[in-house]
Specification:
Blueprint lengths: L3 E6 L4 E3 L9 E5 L1 H26 L10 H20 L2 H10 L4
Antiparallel strand pairs: 1-2, 1-3
Helix pairs in contact: 1-2, 2-3
């Protein structure tokens, strides 16, 4: 399967085919299967983000490091950055490396 250039926003959880459709932070070259896997990771991030938001709204006093929702969010966020780094352009790989998120 051929790889194609995609434009990714981790913050928005988007993977775009057209560079001008919306703002993005990173560029990857990926197959459709790889894009689908990254979308699934973004969905997990969204789900954990929603779960932790519900807890905040419920006024539960749980320390960040003792909260399973936060642990899940952090795990999938790192998974997303690892995938993006693997698929990324040289500039994307360099940027993620400078973030020190994967160490």
């Amino acid at each position: 399967m051929d790889k194609k250039r995609y434009y990714v926003s981790v913050q928005a959880g988007t993977i775009l085919e057209n560079q001008g459709d919306a703002s993005y932070e990173l560029e990857i070259d990926a197959t459709l299967d790889e894009v689908e896997k990254l979308r699934e990771v973004f969905e997990e991030i969204y789900d954990f983000d929603q779960a932790s938001g519900v807890q905040v709204a419920s006024a539960l006093a749980i320390a960040y490091h003792n909260d399973e929702s936060n642990d899940g969010y952090d795990y999938y966020l790192k998974e997303a950055y690892a995938m993006i780094s693997d698929l990324g352009t040289e500039e994307t790989k360099r940027h993620i490396g400078e973030m020190n998120i994967l160490s």
